[in-house]
Amino acid sequence: MAPRCWRHWPAWLRTRPPLARNLLSSRRPFSTQERIPQICVVGSGPAGFYTAQHLLKHHPRLHVDIFEKHLVPFGLVRFGVAPDHPEVKNVIHTFTETARSDRCAFWGNVMVGRDVTVPELQGAYHAVVLSYGAEDHQPLGIPGEELPGVLSARAFVGWYNGLPENRELAPDLSCDTAVILGQGNVALDVARVLLTYPQYLEQTDITEASLGALRQSQVKMVWIVGRRGPLQVAFTIKELREMVHLPGSRPILEPADFLGLQDRIKDAPRPRRRLTELLLRTATEMPGLEEAAHWASAPRAWGLRFFRSPQQVLPSPDGQRTAGIRLAVTKLEGVGEAARAVPTGDVEDLPCGLVVSSVGYKSRPIDPSIPFDPRRGIIPNKEGRVVGVPGLYCSGWVKRGPTGVIGTTMNDSFLTGQALIQDLQGGLLPSGPRPGYTTIEALLGSRGVQPVSFSDWEKLDAEEVSRGQHAGKPREKLTDPQEMLRLLGR
Ligand SMILES: Cc1cc2nc3c(=O)[nH]c(=O)nc-3n(C[C@H](O)[C@H](O)[C@H](O)COP(=O)(O)OP(=O)(O)OC[C@H]3O[C@@H](n4cnc5c(N)ncnc54)[C@H](O)[C@@H]3O)c2cc1C
């Protein structure tokens, strides 16, 4: 039998004799509400908002509820993107337009999996989209990882961006050398924040507490360490260029690491070629007069160390904190992006007081009933349709893994939205009305959960902007959920 879809309701009614139809309609009028597909999205980062935007744009009636575990929306746009990249955060304007639609509602302070389960959402909505990102970090899995002075990039980034769970991190910046493990854009964000003069950060939305700690920081040297070579770095040219021109810092690159690369990049894709050319120029060419003067007087420095894999965090003599890191020297097997680093047997010790591990984010399973691929850290899916679970979809980092920028996330979220609309129109989603938020609101109320709406967020937003104005910055982020609830009169 062909699946019944909510769109077939009028046909179902038409098959009844006129009297029955009248009786039915007099008892339970065929309301517009019943023809409204109820969709719920879990997570209010770029994936959640772009999926919602696509759904609202391509269907005239459906309603979207976005559930978010934090009191505030926007995911990594708020808690990940570096404070000195305000232009990236402009996507918030588009997300705000979506949230203000009268067919969309934002419900913050609701952690799916704890306050309400995915099966409960599946019961209340025609379709559920999981867009809850990648919130864990990949552990290094080496001895000494637990020592004070070792942090994940995720926690460090959360700290300077006001993520409530990291606001008390208080990293010890009294050492002169920091090592960042990993060579992606997040690693460069962390290096840049560590080395940027605080007066440049004062005009950003970085939290006051982290700015205070960065003002006291003694860190002068940052090593950015990768297992593989210059042809495999994962950062992009914009972020590298920012490092090369960072006021008060000079790059330390070993020319020998770049020997012979010029010939090997001739046929590489353009972004990789341009990136490698910039690395090559920085490592091997004499800088211009202005740059040379800048580098000569720079009190801070950063460097890239290639072919080094972390083996052990070395403790201080009293065993109380980090004093360095032991790196295994590696060589490459294979070529290009797919080349593998294998140890040569040599090791090198690099003294440092801070180790920031930036080897990737990781999604976690949200509910035992939902398929999850622990190896790839994603929900198995075909074009956003969760494999084996009709009516369940995913988008963003939990769909394709924790790589790619907001633009990439936008494209894949639009594809998920497209798949959902196709299924809706093809009659593949449950027929008949679904209660949507009405049921979930009652459930949450019975569990003592107090969701916050988008207009609540707009009050907090206004408060942050007003506090920022006093401090001469775009906003002063609220980081304490209790204070936020108090401000909302809860
Ligand atoms: C440090 C860092 C810096 C970055 N900088 C840039 C940049 O400058 N430019 C750029 O284009 N891209 C940048 N990116 C990439 C960009 O942030 C991602 O592509 C994008 O945020 C992924 O979107 P997402 O919605 O899948 O995940 P997220 O943005 O992580 O959103 C997931 C949302 O789900 C919520 N959530 C999680 N679990 C639950 C739950 N159980 N219940 C309810 N809600 C839940 C989270 O709180 C979060 O709000 C950066 C990424 C990082 C990590």
Give structural notes.
- InterPro entries: FAD/NAD-bd_sf, Ferredox_Rdtase, Ferredox_Rdtase_adrenod.
- Belongs to the ferredoxin--NADP reductase type 1 family.
- It is found in: Mitochondrion.
- This is NADPH:adrenodoxin oxidoreductase, mitochondrial.
- It catalyses: 2 reduced [adrenodoxin] + NADP(+) + H(+) = 2 oxidized [adrenodoxin] + NADPH.
- By secondary structure, this protein is α/β, with parallel strands linked by helices.
- 36% of the residues lie in helices and 18% in strands.
- It is built from 19 helices and 18 strands.
- The chain has a 6-stranded parallel β-sheet. The chain has a 5-stranded parallel β-sheet with strand order 3-2-1-4-18, with helices on both faces.
- A hairpin with a 6-residue loop joins strand 12 and strand 13.
- The N terminus is likely disordered.
- Flavin-adenine dinucleotide binds next to helix 3, helix 4, helix 8 and helix 16.
Distinct compounds present: flavin-adenine dinucleotide
Low-confidence stretches: 1-30
The total strand number stands at 18
Gross morphology: globular
User: Main beta sheet: strand number and arrangement?
Assistant: 6 strands, parallel
Distance between the termini: 51 Å
Number of discrete helical segments: 19
Mean pLDDT: 92
Structural class: alpha/beta
Spatial extent as radius of gyration = 26 Å
* Order of the strands making up the biggest sheet: 6-14-7-8-10-9
What percent of residues are in strands?
15-25%
- Level of helix content? 25-40%
